[in-house]
Amino acid sequence: MPETDPTLGDLPAPVRQRLVSLVAGALPEVAVLPASLRRIRDFAPARRARAGAASIEGALQDAEFRVRAALVVPAQPGVDDPVTAAALAWLGRGDGWLEDLAKALALVSEHEESSGREDERLARLTVRLDQAERVLREARGSHRQQLDEARAENARLRRTLGQERRAGREALEAATS
């Protein structure tokens, strides 16, 4: 954490994205908008966040706009999500906001580290799944071939049985006539 108040650029990408999303959702209620944001004000919130992300980030560099945006972004006390908590702390800058931001950013960092471990585990499991699917496909192919062979043998034995029955009936008829 820098010695001065952290700028938007100092925040991790997920926190910046959440901040943009929160501000984009409340943009129509902000009293005075910079010219760069007026053109996206009437977009749907998701589109505002997507299409106006750079403009919103640029506008948040201005302290006056940040304060106006903080007044209309809904307060969310007791937020469980550290990314949202960090975004709200940076935006609102209430009493103890630097400590709140530091705690939330520490949790975000821990989550990113654990997410990295989870990604590695997911990659290992994906490889194992691919191997298991390949073995399953091979086993299905082998079983399908065995089933086809068994069906062909069954058909051959039925023909032989039918021929033997017919020969037996003919022999019985010949013996009785």
**Helix fraction?**
over 70%
Mean pLDDT, rounded to whole units? 87
Beta fraction: under 5%
Work out the oligomeric state of the chains in this entry: single chain
Series of H and E elements: HHHHHHH
Q: How would you sum up the global shape?
A: rod-shaped
Total beta strands: 0
Q: In angstroms, what separates the terminal alpha carbons? A: 111 Å
Q: Which residues sit in consecutive blocks of at least 5 with pLDDT less than 50?
A: none
Cα-based radius of gyration, to the nearest Å = 35 Å
- Pairing-aware structural class of the strands and helices? mainly alpha
Q: How many alpha or pi helices?
A: 7
Instruction: Report the sheet with the most strands, covering strand number, pairing sense and barrel closure.
Output: none
Task: Kindly describe this structure.
The chain is mainly alpha-helical. It is rod-shaped and about 115 Å long. The protein is built from seven helices and no strands. α1 packs across α3 (45-51), α1 packs across α6 (82-92) and α6 runs antiparallel to α7. The chain has helices spanning 13-26, 35-38, 45-51, 53-60, 63-72, 82-92, 97-176. The relative contact order is 0.09.
In short, what is this structure?
With 177 residues, the chain is mainly alpha-helical. It has helices spanning 13-26, 35-38, 45-51, 53-60, 63-72, 82-92, 97-176.
SSE topology sketch:
Layout: H1 13-26, H2 35-38, H3 45-51, H4 53-60, H5 63-72, H6 82-92, H7 97-176
